[in-house]
Amino acid sequence: MDDMNPKEALFAFEDVHVSVGGNEVVKGVSLSVRAGEKHALMGPNGSGKSSLANALMGNPSYEITSGRVTLLGQDITEMPPDERSRLGLFLAFQYPYAIPGVTVANFLRSALQARLPEGEKQKGFRKALKEQCRLLNVDSSFAGRYLNDGFSGGEKKRVEILQMAMLRPSMAILDETDSGLDIDALKVVSEGINRVCGPEVGVLLVTHYQRILDYVKPDFVHVLVKGRLVRSGGAQLALELEQTGYDEFLEEAQLEPAEV
Q: Which of 12, 44, 97, 110 registers the highest number of CB atoms within 10 A of its CB?
């Protein structure tokens, strides 16, 4: 992984700096993800993990001040979020938004329609939605409910995995998908991630804790502290963090970002 050419990667970002409200929160981070790889990005609160995830998706509140982001060999650094989505990038939010008045089915139908050439109509939407609900153990009645309106934390995260299954991205960024989940919901959501993210899909899983990694096995684990990548390794690194915490990395965060 260390010597991977970003041009060979499914998804890559090089020396990315991110500012929020004029404050730099990500300070020169580089990473490459091949198809089928699962990368876990771990770090304490305030380390810049969610800011990086939002910036990579194109959220205008998170400005990439320098650096480059590519997907499928195409530079997407300046692309708006909808174009990144059409190209195959997906972001699962830490706190999914509720949209009263818009049903889950209509939201998904609109998202899929936006990916089609102008004038082309969808085919087989209801059948595909019903099948994905079955595969992901999502009650089909959710399709008629308003998106995330009155949903529990587990229901919100399961519906996000349903969205991912329907949109079929090539690269999925999952921002603290385990946040607010009890152990049963965590298992269900993790099973959904593993089912949707097969050998053609890259995954960047942002998390504080090791527990989701018991179910979604990472190929690589990276530690982000104070906006810098300070350590990268295999799945064992997450187990070490569970035992030691992040204190030992605080001094390393002052050094040059790690090459990964």
A: 12
List the structure tokens of 42. 């771990």
Indicate if the pLDDT at residue 111 is higher than 50: yes
Cα angle for residues 18, 178, 113 (degrees, 5° grid): 70
> Sign of torsion, CA 92 98 99 104?
positive
Give the separation between CA 217 and CA 132, rounded to whole angstroms.
22
User: For 125-148, how does the pLDDT look when each residue is reduced to its tens digit (9 = 90+)?
Assistant: 999 999 999 999 888 899 999 999
191: which residues sit within 8 A by CB, 6+ positions away?
Answer: 136, 137, 215
Q: How confident is the model at residue 106 (pLDDT cuts 50, 70, 90)?
A: very high
Are 56 and 48 spatial neighbours (Cβ–Cβ below 8 Å)? no
Which domains are seen in the chain, by residue range?
6-97+170-254 (3.40.50.300)
